[in-house]
Amino acid sequence: MNKNIGLSLGFGGISILVLSLFNLFEGAALLYTSLAMILAGIVVYAFGSYKDEMPGIKNNEVWFKSVSSKGTIAWILGFVLTAFYVVIYWYPEYLGLHKEGNTGIIAFFDPLSYVLNGHAASQWFVYGTLYTIAILGFGVKFILKYRHNNYEIIRTLSVMFFQLGFAFLLPEFLAKLNPELDYFAKDIKNMWPLNYYFFEDWHLKALLGGGNLGMFMLFFGIGMVFLISPILTYFFGKRWYCSWVCGCGGLAETAGDSFRHLSDKSDKAWKIERWMIHSVLLFIFITTVAVIYSFLINEKAVLQPNVFLFGVIGFLGIFTLYINKIGYKKLALDARKGIYWASGIISLFLIVNMAIGNTNVFFIDSYSLRSWYGFFIGAAFSGVVGVGFYPIMGSRVWCRFGCPMAAILGFQQKLLSRFRITTNGSQCISCGNCSTYCEMGIDVRSYAMKGEDIVRSSCVGCGVCSAVCPRGVLKLENGAVEI
Amino acid sequence: MKVVIIGNGIAGITAAIELRKKSDCEIVVVSEETEYFFSRTALMYVFMGHMKFEHTQPYEKSFWQNQNIILKKAKVKSINASQNFLNLENGEKLSYDFLVIASGSKPNKFNWPGQDLNGVSGLYHKSDLEYLESYSSKIKHAVVVGGGLIGVELAEMLKSRGKEVTFLVREGSFWDIVMSEKEGRMLEKHIISHGINLKLNTELKEIKGSSEVEGLITNHGEMIDCQFVGLTVGVSPNIDFIKESGININRGILVNDFLQTNIQNIFAIGDCAEIQNPQLGRRPIEAVWYTGKMMGEALAKSLSGVKTQYNPGHWFNSAKFFDIEYQTYGNVPAKVNESQVELYWEKENKAVRIVFEKASKKFLGINTFGIRMRHQFFESVLNQNQSVDFVLKNLEKANFDPEFYKKYEKEIRNEFLKSI
């Protein structure tokens, strides 16, 4: 009953948005009504689903329902989501984005945009608003579903808070308070390389010209990835980011929860994952080095371009040495070889480049590199495949196969973190709930049935394996090792 | 050397995998049930839609090839122990140098009238699950007979699919051979709160129907209309095919401390094995997952040349009753005797019962409901013969609940210290 009311409200709200595409509506009241209907619809549906149920694991009929078992509804939903991402990235004019003045759904969002940031809406404002509503609404659903589990409740409140506050409201308010500044990413939790344009010239210029706020953002952004993230990952594992703070993770954990079991657990998928995610990391690393180098040359900045290149070579050297002398026990042979080869080849390129004084460090225009990255990784992978394919490939496809931030945090987690999932003696009955519900496709059971601790780079620490275990075998821990 | 293993459940498969780690002998696993190993304990989750059947298989198909373990889907008809070969139902003969029997259990049936009607089933084999699935659409009201672990699982399964469920339990309190009365009462309340019609002190007398189940009659003469009867009144060793082989049997296949039968090159492990001289406090047949696994590990060592006694260590077990998780470590009798003392704490579907020796205060064991506790902690407490005081003092160290869960250790300790 309540579920139907929820569905009606939600789809009613969405219908208003769809009709706004055809310029049928305008006005703040109707906008707020439609957004409120969507949010309320999700919440009402969630209460309808779980309120009368006893607290406990709620996975009944997951593999029978069309939407969560790759049935017809799942394919339709996947198609709609994918189409939405294709339009928003490459055909925003269909949403009403026009130089001479926006129309359609983008214009429909103007009232809210003016209130928050003082500008007319863009397609990204529409997207950000809907994204935030999804995390808030489905966050409530997830909390109701796991209301017996304090870890899940607190973790979900955290992703909801960071999405609403840091990713959505704060950047908009900062834009409103500083109307004279150029646009720069004001979401301070969205660090490089997940925020791949952080070091691009236009962004660096905006930061450098952005006064105190810009300088703060610049130093905080660099400090985040090189200082804060290793420290937090050391104590808590990469979960502090991936399942507590990150917006991509936030959507996966809330709106994507109904699809978490669809992740591929095969050995083959794991092999592809290891190569693919680290290739993306390599790609963004090369791109960023090239982009910064061009920036330093073009802007005649304080930092000498060649000093920067020496710095990069030095960094790679120290990292390689660390892997070779200290971290080698924790990495497989092919992973170590990959690091040695990649570091060696990059350094070689940079040295040759310095010798011949080339401005394109990798003999490819840095502008081409970053536009390829933006197209293939930033848009096609993280957006279209990452969210569009939720109902078919599970909710963490991007995080698992593509996210370079996850790859860096994964190195930190594997090499120096105290975080691990421990198994409770011999209590495992090999049932497979943990592996089935691992959104990252980790075969948790293969460790649990041997009584081994689970230390995997990809684990985002969502805690669901521990929650669904019927025998109390798994526990996320980050204390010092004892007993 | 050729080792043939009958049965691909947890005992047989553990023996095969562990043996392969230590030996490159030929290993053949024969099973009539399925081609690949699956987790029997997970069948309920397939019916409930939490998992697909493939998720219950811990190893990928390529694993068996890589490990060079030959899987043979066939039913064993008889054993020719004097000439070291098996007769299979399909007429084939399969020779061996060493034979491991891990044929598991079969659900008990006590010759009730109507027990072979359509719509009567146990829950043990994969075929039982398939039968239940195919029959499910006909079921509006199901009756589950037998108040053990499988009974409560079957009740939960049927309930999850929207069936009305009546649950007949012979005893006056739930699972009273293991649970104290207070524990039983807490579980009964929880089971009832899930909408199960629980009838204590009630037994099955007769199942009614012409070809399909239409109802059943209880020992109180009550007629219950139903379309399905789940029989979960325990299991017995599955050893019918052994009877003419010359292998000594009692209820199960009799084995010594090395899991060896009276015939030197034939062994038995898992549910079908009956230990002739069990350790103090242990039963000769323990049909649980964990002992099957440990027997498989011990036997693999022996077969690889390192003669190893089966030593199950301290008893432990676990289960889940709807939403209440249960773990037990050590010896926790349902009713304590005069030389023992029990401490019991209960709050909101959580409970802890500790049993210790009155005179020496030696800790004997613990039942815990709704609070996860560490196996290693109690294993070392029991190994070191620690006192109940030590356990209470260090109860926080035993906690294995997820982070941010409410902690009850202080409350439990204070309450127990008052009563010691």
Topology:
The complex is a heterodimer of chains A (483) and B (420).
Chain A: H1 2-20, H2 28-50, H3 72-90, H4 104-108, H5 110-117, H6 123-145, H7 150-177, H8 201-208, H9 211-236, H10 239-242, H11 247-254, H12 267-299, H13 305-325, H14 333-356, H15 366-388, H16 390-393, H17 397-401, H18 404-416, E1 420-423, H19 433-436, H20 444-448, H21 464-468, E2 474-477
Antiparallel strand pairs in A: 1-2
Helix pairs in contact in A: 1-2, 2-6, 3-15, 6-7, 6-11, 7-11, 8-9, 9-18, 12-13, 12-15, 12-18, 13-14
Chain B: E1 2-6, H1 10-22, E2 26-31, H2 43-47, H3 61-66, E3 69-73, E4 76-80, E5 85-88, E6 93-95, E7 98-101, E8 105-107, E9 120-121, H4 126-135, E10 141-145, H5 149-160, E11 164-168, H6 181-193, E12 197-199, E13 204-209, E14 213-218, E15 223-225, E16 228-231, E17 235-237, E18 253-255, E19 266-268, E20 273-275, H7 289-303, E21 316-321, E22 324-330, E23 340-347, E24 350-357, E25 363-369, H8 375-383, H9 388-393, H10 395-398, H11 409-419
Parallel strand pairs in B: 1-2, 1-7, 2-3, 7-19, 9-16, 10-11, 10-16, 11-12, 18-20
Antiparallel strand pairs in B: 4-5, 5-6, 8-17, 13-14, 14-15, 21-22, 22-25, 23-24, 24-25
